[in-house]
């Protein structure tokens, strides 16, 4: 341990203010009076008054000078009291037989007056506390008592000597002859995770010192000097032995007290049968008044300050310097945190075993007479008053009085264990036992006083200190929530409910729905310390709370103080406001609870009751959102609640979410038909009051849209067709969506659908048939024919409407065309475009039936398509060329026919239109110009009319004749070239076949390099030669060089074809 690495700290007092050079000082500058919190941590359980003890003369027992306590077992705790006359009194306390309720405590308020409360100490009964015996060890005061449970002894310091006694004072006390002049004794406390230290630092394992030779060498040369002092030969530090440090003048002597029975190589006191061993002597400092030994560090206090010693090296380092006018030093070992509390006047500083400050500082009311510790609190006593301070928060938690002012110096002692729950305080003539109140009782007490914040703070502190589980924290949050709920603080109550991880949502069900109900058996019967009434509906809770506020107001006027909220007394809230607030925050709790992993039955209760609360506040949007989303609502519980005109939409959504589509569709049908009568209003358009008609249409369409969502997924033909009509009345596009939906598992029967469609709603039928043919790939000729007939009828009506519109007087109105007529259509293309496309693309309809329908109409292009399907080429050409005068389409049709006589037939039609029409010379000239080369000039000349102007025909005929001559000559050239190529190819083939190769005895195969001799061989076009075996392996198309002659052809020069 190197003490040089720790920078020393100093505290200087200036004008009543304490300054510290600590890296993390938290010392309060003000010495103002600290107001204690109303928390009960300790309660008095027993009292011993020496003046009333008949077996002890008061002159021999008073005043008390030292105090110690030790728990031997669960049923016995021993209390040792040292007096100024050298006497030790032993008391026995049975904690299990003491009832805190037998005590009548008295505390001191802020003004110093005594009050009876639960934090006092005046005990009228000493049940469980008994006097065992007393013994006298000297005529001088007993300075200190130390209980050494490890060796079953108590160590007493009196008149500079150390005495050892048994725990029950059954044997006479024996004085140790060494050391003499002891002023302060401190036993060694070790942390649970610390390892055994080698106090000698000789490097020799203790097991090796067991032999006589090793011990002899150690005695001669191994005596270690620490700061110049020589130590005795130590033995191994046995487990269960006790180490103590004794301050004698300027020396610190480290002694090990051994268990009885270990007598090999030990120092035995001549005057007694006890066993001890001196481990080390350290040169210290003079004037040691207090001392603590923690692990390997010994902290001592003198009038000049505090010093840290290492029990390993003996080195020292100053920690704090005290001013000249400072009070005597005081040290207290805090066993729970394994720290040390140092005092500078009334300021306590907590340091660790290395002397480094940890946490904050504690500022006490006065300089304490004595200091103790219990759990997470520091206990200080002064002038008959005891204060408890929390170590971490530095707050005064409890303050109580156990004696009157001027009683003299007081003492406090606690059990030297981390789990000790007993504390003893003493005046010069009286000793009082206190027991720590359980955490549960402390919390209950705060909750009874309605100190909810302090209760939660206490629970969080206990959890942080490891004294309370997280489940208990959740339990307290739930308990506080219920108390706040009955106090009408709904927001805070719900906040605590949400902080509780163990509270179940079913616990709030009784506040929403009266018992008995569907979920009564789901409510857990938890014990909440009986601090609040049983659950009641929120209306009853509010009524009882308002009545309590009214009573509190009367009591206040009568001068009686109550715990009722001050704001409620000054400004009592209305019942309606409280009820609305309660429902709102209960909604918030249930909304959060929906996200938890709940059982199905609890989910049903949460969602159903949440719908109840929404309905109570008329939150229509939230109701519809809950009903339309995935939920666990019980429909039977909500049907009556929602069966009114204002909430039918919610009921419809709820039916739909539960798969009750028929009931939901019935509601949407009613809403769509009765919207204009004011049965319900669409929230989307509710503000648009300027256009009532628009609102009605929008409301109806909303109902139709919601019904469409259900019908799109339904495979029930009867239900779909039943509701198809009213949806189509609202919007034909939605009806088409229903019929053509691909969301349903099984598609509807086309025959039933076609029969159910209103004949007046032609577009629905057409769109459905189009979907069957194009999307569903239907090959049923009936549907193709029906679709064509329906389109033909619509086209005829559109043409007639256009003709009628053109005959009207257009002076004051603009002309309307077919596209204007079809503005309201659900199709993007005009009906004639769709008809023409379908007639051309489909081959499954009956063209004769469609032709019979359009025969007398003006649908000439459609007729041409139908005639083409029937193969009547002449009629098609007549319509295209003469009726529609579409020369390009007529010529294209002739090209599709592919015969030259078709062009001649078209030319005849142009030259002789008949029906009194003039010849179409321009069209005829266009035909001759584009396709004259494929016509016979003689036939053309024969067909030409004598009336045709020569200037129109001369150029065309001349060009046609030239083309004929050109084609003839071009054909001769191609014929001769082809013949020349054929001759050249034959010649090349002959040359290849006439090639020879000479093989001799030295000829080798180009693949395997074996001699050919008389073997069969093959020669490839690239002149490579292989044996027949390699030829079979290589194949006839690939040579030994890897060239594939099928893909890489060899061209050899000829007289016409060159490479």
UniProtKB/TrEMBL annotation:
Q: Name one GO cellular component term.
A: cytoplasm
Q: Where are the CHCR repeats?
A: 738-919
The cross-references to InterPro entries, in alphabetical order and at most eight, read: Clathrin_H-chain/VPS_repeat (IPR000547), CNH_dom (IPR001180), Vam6/VPS39/TRAP1 (IPR032914), VPS39/TGF_beta_rcpt-assoc_1 (IPR019452), VPS39/TGFA1_Znf (IPR019453)
Q: What are the BP-aspect GO terms?
A: autophagy; endosomal vesicle fusion; intracellular protein transport
- The domain of life for this entry's organism is Eukaryota
What stretches pass through the bilayer? none
Q: The CNH domain covers which part of the protein? A: 63-415
The UniProt entry, under PROSITE patterns, shows: CHCR, CNH
Q: Does the keyword Methyltransferase apply?
A: no
Q: What are the protein's UniProt keywords? A: Receptor
| Name of this chain's protein | Transforming growth factor-beta receptor-associated protein 1
Which species does this protein come from?
A: Nelumbo nucifera (Sacred lotus)
**Gene designation per UniProt:** LOC104596129
């Amino acid at each position: 341990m190197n003490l040089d690495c720790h920078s020393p700290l100093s505290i200087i007092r200036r004008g009543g203010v304490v300054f510290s050079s600590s890296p993390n000082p938290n010392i309060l500058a003000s010495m103002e009076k600290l107001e204690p919190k109303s928390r009960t941590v300790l309660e008095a359980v027993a009292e011993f008054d020496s003046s009333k003890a008949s077996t002890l003369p008061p002159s021999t027992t008073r005043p008390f000078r030292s105090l110690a306590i030790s728990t031997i077992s669960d049923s016995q705790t021993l209390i040792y009291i040292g007096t100024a006359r050298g006497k030790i009194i032993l008391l026995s306390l049975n904690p299990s037989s003491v009832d805190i309720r037998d005590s009548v405590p008295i505390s001191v308020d802020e003004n110093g007056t005594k009050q009876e409360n639960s934090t006092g100490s005046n005990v009228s009964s000493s049940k469980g506390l008994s006097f065992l015996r007393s013994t006298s060890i000297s005529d001088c005061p007993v300075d200190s008592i130390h209980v050494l449970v490890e060796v079953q002894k108590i160590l007493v310091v009196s008149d500079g000597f150390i005495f050892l006694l048994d725990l029950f004072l059954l044997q006479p006390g024996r004085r140790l002859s060494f050391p003499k002049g002891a002023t302060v004794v401190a036993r060694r406390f070790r942390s649970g995770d610390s390892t055994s230290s080698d106090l000698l630092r000789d490097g020799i394992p203790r097991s090796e010192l067991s032999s006589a030779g090793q011990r002899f060498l150690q005695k001669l040369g191994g005596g270690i000097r620490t700061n110049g002092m020589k130590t005795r030969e130590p033995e191994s530090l046995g487990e269960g032995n006790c180490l103590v440090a004794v301050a004698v003048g300027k020396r610190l002597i480290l002694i090990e007290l051994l268990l009885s029975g270990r007598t090999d190589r030990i120092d035995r006191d001549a005057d007694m049968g006890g066993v001890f061993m001196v481990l080390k002597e350290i040169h210290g400092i003079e004037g040691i008044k207090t001392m603590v030994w923690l692990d390997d560090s010994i902290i001592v206090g003198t009038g000049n300050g505090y010093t840290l010693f290492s029990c390993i090296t003996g080195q020292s380092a100053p920690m704090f310097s005290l001013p000249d006018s400072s009070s005597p030093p005081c040290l207290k070992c805090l066993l729970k945190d394994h720290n040390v509390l140092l005092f500078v006047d009334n300021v306590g500083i907590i340091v660790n075993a290395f002397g480094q400050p940890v946490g904050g500082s504690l500022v006490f009311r006065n300089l304490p007479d004595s200091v103790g510790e219990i759990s997470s609190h520091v206990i200080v006593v002064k002038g008959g008053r005891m204060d408890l301070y929390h170590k971490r928060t530095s707050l005064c938690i409890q303050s109580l009085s156990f004696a009157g002012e001027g009683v003299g110096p007081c003492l406090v002692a606690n059990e030297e264990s981390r789990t000790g729950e007993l504390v003893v305080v003493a005046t010069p003539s009286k000793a009082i036992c206190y027991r720590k109140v359980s955490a549960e009782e402390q919390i209950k007490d705060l909750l009874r006083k309605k100190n909810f914040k302090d209760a939660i703070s206490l629970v969080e502190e206990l959890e942080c200190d490891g004294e309370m589980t997280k489940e208990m924290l959740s339990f307290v949050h739930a308990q506080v929530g219920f108390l706040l709920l009955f106090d009408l603080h709904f927001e805070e109550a719900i906040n605590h409910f949400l902080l509780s991880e163990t509270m179940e949502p079913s616990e709030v069900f009784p506040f929403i729905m009266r018992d008995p109900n569907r979920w009564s058996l789901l409510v857990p019967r938890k014990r909440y310390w009986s601090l609040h009434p049983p659950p009641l509906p929120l209306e009853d809770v509010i009524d009882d709370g308002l009545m309590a506020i009214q009573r509190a107001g009367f009591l206040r006027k009568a001068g009686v103080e109550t715990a009722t909220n001050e704001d409620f007394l000054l400004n009592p809230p209305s019942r309606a406001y409280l009820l609305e607030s309660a429902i709102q925050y209960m909604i918030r709790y249930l909304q959060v609870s929906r996200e938890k992993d709940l059982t199905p039955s609890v989910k049903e209760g949460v969602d159903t009751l949440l719908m109840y609360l929404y309905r109570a506040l008329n939150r229509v949007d939230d109701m519809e959102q809950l009903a339309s989303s995935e939920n666990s609502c019980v429909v039977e519980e909500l049907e009556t609640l929602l069966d009114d005109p204002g909430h039918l939409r919610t009921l419809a959504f709820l039916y739909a979410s539960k798969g009750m589509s028929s009931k939901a569709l019935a509601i949407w049908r009613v809403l769509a038909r009765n919207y204009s009568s004011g049965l319900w209003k669409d929230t989307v358009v509710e503000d648009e009051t300027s256009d009532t008609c628009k609102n009605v249409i929008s409301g109806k369409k909303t109902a139709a849209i919601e019904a469409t969502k259900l019908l799109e997924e339904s495979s029930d033909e009867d239900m779909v067709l039943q509701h198809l009509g009213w949806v189509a009345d609202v919007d034909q596009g939605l009806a088409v969506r229903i019929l053509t939906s691909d969301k349903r598992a099984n598609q509807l029967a086309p025959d039933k659908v076609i029969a159910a469609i209103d004949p007046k709603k032609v577009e629905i039928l057409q769109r459905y048939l189009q979907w069957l043919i194009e999307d569903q790939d239907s090959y049923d000729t009936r549907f193709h024919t029906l679709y064509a007939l329906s389109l033909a009828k619509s086209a005829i009506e559109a043409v007639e409407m256009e003709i009628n519109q053109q005959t009207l007087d257009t002076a004051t109105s603009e002309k309307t065309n077919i596209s204007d007529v079809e503005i309201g259509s659900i199709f993007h293309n005009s009906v004639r475009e769709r008809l023409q496309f379908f007639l051309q693309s489909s081959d499954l309809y009956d063209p004769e039936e469609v032709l019979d329908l359009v025969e007398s109409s003006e649908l000439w292009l459609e007729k041409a398509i139908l005639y083409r399907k029937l193969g009547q080429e002449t009629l098609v050409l007549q319509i295209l060329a003469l009726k529609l005068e579409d020369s390009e389409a007529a010529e294209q049709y002739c090209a599709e026919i592919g015969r030259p006589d078709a062009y001649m037939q078209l030319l005849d039609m142009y030259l002789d239109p008949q029906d009194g029409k003039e010849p179409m010379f321009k069209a005829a000239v266009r035909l001759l110009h584009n396709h004259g080369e494929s016509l016979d000039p003689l036939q053309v000349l024969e067909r030409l009319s004598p009336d045709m102007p020569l200037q129109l025909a001369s150029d065309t005929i001349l060009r046609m004749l030239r083309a004929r001559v050109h084609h003839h000559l071009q054909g001769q050239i191609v014929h001769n070239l082809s013949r020349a190529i054929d001759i050249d190819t034959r010649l090349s083939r002959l040359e290849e076949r006439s090639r020879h190769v000479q093989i001799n005895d030295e000829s080798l195969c180009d693949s395997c390099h074996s001699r050919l001799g008389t073997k069969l061989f093959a020669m490839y076009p690239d002149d490579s030669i292989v044996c027949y075996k390699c030829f079979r392996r290589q194949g006839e198309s690939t040579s030994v060089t890897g060239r594939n002659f099928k893909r890489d052809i060899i061209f050899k020069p000829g007289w016409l074809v060159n490479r």
